[in-house]
Amino acid sequence: MASMPIDGVLSLAWVLIALPLVGAFVLLVCGRWTNRWGPYLGVLTVSLAGLLAIAMLLAMMALPVEERTIDVNYATWMFAGSFSADIGLQLDQLSMVFVLLITIVGALIHVYSLGYMAHDPDRRKFFGYLNLFVAAMLLLVLANNYLLLYVGWEGVGLASYLLIGFYQARHSAAAAAKKAFIINRVGDVGLSLAIMVMFVTFGSVAFNDVFAEAADANEGVLTAIGLLLLLAACGKSAQFPLQAWLLDAMEGPTPVSALIHAATMVTAGVYLIARSNAIYDRAVWAALAVVIVGIITVFMGAIIGSAKDDIKKSLAGSTMSQIGYMVMAAGLGPIGYVFAIFHLLTHGVFKAGLFLGAGSVMHGMNDNVDMRRYGALRTVMVFTFITFLFGYLAIIGIPPFAGFWSKDEIIHAAFERGPALGVAAVLAAGITGFYMTRMLIMTFFGKPRWEDGAHPHESPPVMTVPLVILAIGSFGLGMALLFWGNIESWLEPVVGIASDPLPYATWVYIAVTLAVVLIGVAIAIWTYTRKPIPILAPRGSWLTRAGRAELYGNQVNDVLVVRPSYQLARGANWFDERAVDGFVLGIAGFIGGLATRMRRTQRGFVRGYALSMVGGAVIVLIALALVRLA
Q1: Residue range 280-312, pLDDT digits in tens
Q2: What residues contact residue 83 under an 8 Å CB cut-off, 6+ apart?
Q3: Is 2 exposed, middle or buried (0-12, 13-18, 19+ CB in 10 A)?
Q4: What is the mean pLDDT of residues 8-14?
Q5: Is residue 112 within 8 Å of residue 460, measured between CB atoms?
Q6: What would the pLDDT profile of 559-572 be if each residue is shown by its tens digit?
Q7: Which residues span the domain enclosing 430?
Q8: Which of 100, 297, 335, 498 sits in a 20 to 30 Å window from 5, CA-based?
Q9: Are 485 and 575 within one domain?
Q10: Looking at the domain assignment, is residue 524 inside a domain?
């Protein structure tokens, strides 16, 4: 492990965070005089961070494997007795892949936003929030201790609140931002409690200290920490049971959806679990809980994605499902850590392309998000269609597109752990083929179902060029990471890797998975091409209705959390008003009443005071006489 001073570009890890943070400061603090050039500053800062990240990757690759972890403490942040926490960054193979994803995909989203937000009067503020989001996420993945990671974690939550509620004049956007913020606070409680338990157990919250002590720690304590970290991951990565905020997050501008769903916020939970692999390797029950949460969310997201007619919400359900794959893989331990990160990288690229493609469709359709009002757009939005098609082929896992290489590895790891888990992963892949084909057909094929006055058109180059770059990544990134980048050996020093034998040859699992995916594709084609797609959605089966209602997650939260919280608040308010205030005000009233009555004895006449004195003396004498006689 390298220690300060560190020469060369690897010593500039702090600059990665500083660049977008300075951009956010200038854009949000310096006022309207930055309106004209501010958005370009936002693009420039993240783009420079991306170029710096590439240079750091090349420098890291030139180092021997044992020297690729750069851990630098810049200052002591806080101390109390034997406890201290530093402001320090750790750049290693795991954080490096996240830095590349965040900065490069983030830069493309920034460029795209120049066109998408061109006519928005508050676009300077929008780019400031984007810069703040990127800076917070970089701090999260570069921190070398859990306490500093928590700062980045909360920064991401703040930035997401600002971006989801960017159109704050709309009640739905304001409500969605509050919902995301509050649900994430539930997960944040898990992270804060986990950090406290680490401090009590290990006396430190630094990664190196915690992971070194975890090897000899009590398994029950590690299980508690693992479950608390899982709660935190469920909040940020929209996993069951804290998934309800994700679809409402579509109220923000489409570039926000791409940033949250591809490169930043939803990946934070996967990073937290993978980074904490030393804990989960010992906490078997916590790791099992991670697998269960992941596989439940895989199917929840797939069902929701199959039922929604809003193109962004259907993609949001897809994100839930794909992140569920990653969480499930991370719960498998050394068999799955690498492949969880592998799929996270490929998903970050093709899902960004899909969301930005959806934004391009909306741009040409007067911001209409209803796929039942689309149709035949491939003829008028050629670039958008081709790039969206590349993302579609990647997410359903058609070779040689990126998703085939990464998702199939997760499916193989699931079969290594057990046939039931593997079969579930394959079935979810089939549903992915169904809902993504449904989306493709409803949007780009069939007859036009456009609203009166709609004139769909291709987006400007500032929006289509990022789409083309992401489409190229959707095609070649999987092969590049697996064969040229050797993602397995790259991540092995940080997260470890293991493999169990499969009962059958690998090609059998590949063939079965592809067959199931193609069956899902065929069902979608048969369902949505044999007759015209109705403008108004039919009632559908009970599962379709449940999917449209997001599997009643909001209703469950309302019954289990919102209403009890409301009743508890009413009860606490009653107790405060009647008991607490009643006691205090009652004493005050008693003293006031007593004083009022005592005041009546003070009339200002000397004869009255003399009579009182004589009366008092008589009473005292009588009392003394009674005492003596007794």
Answers
A1: 999 999 999 999 999 999 999 999 999 999 999
A2: 199, 203, 204
A3: middle
A4: 88
A5: no
A6: 888 888 888 888 88
A7: 336-548
A8: 100
A9: no
A10: yes
